[in-house]
Design a protein that fits this description.
With 73 residues, the chain is mainly α. Helices cover 68% and strands 0% of the residues.
């Protein structure tokens, strides 16, 4: 797939979901794309159920761990 085609898929995904273009400047968004590019061939995103349960809990714990040193000051 050509870059222009990929760019259009990104644009359609943003527009179809009401995601502001500012997300393209967000480091986490860029890291997500990099991870997808380096992930296993044929990677599929997690299911809605897994994202809203298991992965959300893991993400919350990770953020809390990152914030712990700040909270302790």
């Amino acid at each position: 797939m050509e870059r222009a085609d990929v760019d259009m898929k990104v644009m359609r995904g943003l527009c179809a979901n009401g995601i502001p273009f500012n997300v393209l400047r967000n480091p986490q968004f860029v890291q997500m794309l990099e991870a997808i590019n380096m992930g296993p061939k044929g990677y599929k995103p997690p299911s809605f159920e897994k994202a809203r349960t298991v992965l959300l809990d893991e993400c919350k714990r990770s953020v809390e761990k990152d914030l712990a040193p700040i909270k302790d000051t």
